[in-house]
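User: I'm preparing a small set of examples for a lab meeting where we compare how different chains pack in three dimensions. I only have the primary sequence for this one, and I'd like the structure in token form so I can line it up with the others. Please keep the answer compact; I'll paste it straight into my notes.
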Amino acid sequence: MTAETSQTLDRGLRVLKLLAETDHGLTVTELSHRLGVNRTVVYRLLATLEQHALVRRDLGGRARVGLGVLRLGRQVHPLVREAAMPALRSLAEDIGATAHLTLVDGSEALAVAVVEPSWTDYHVAYRAGFRHPLDRGAAGKAILSARQRGRTNRGTP
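Assistant: Understood. Below is the structure token output for the 157-residue chain.
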């Protein structure tokens, strides 16, 4: 049995996914072509998503993912943190250094989970919830390096 779905909701979610896949945003025309729908439909979808702060438009009219998605994603971090803690504890104890899980949040690195070893006298001062620009700190630089390698492997500049 196939469940009934909402075409409008499906399109709105597809808009969010398309916007999440681009760093430079998309125009109404670009979204219209990618979704295979009329521009009027895209305007209505964007207006609704903007009302909920899930999408924002820049001065050039390009749509981008809005900060409202962070509110939706807040409950994901506790799940990720819980899943990562056993591995982080083991790593911290094995190497005798602070271990942390850092995720990308826009242009920032966000420490989601931090574990200090129990047997050392000193620790790195790094706390869950700490944010810093991606181009600062080892975690952010590692993320940027991995992104660059991924682009190179795909042949993308």
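A couple of notes for your slides: Residues 7-71 form a domain with the Arc Repressor Mutant, subunit A fold (CATH 1.10.10.10). Residues 28 and 43 are 7 Å apart (CA to CA).

User: Perfect, thanks.
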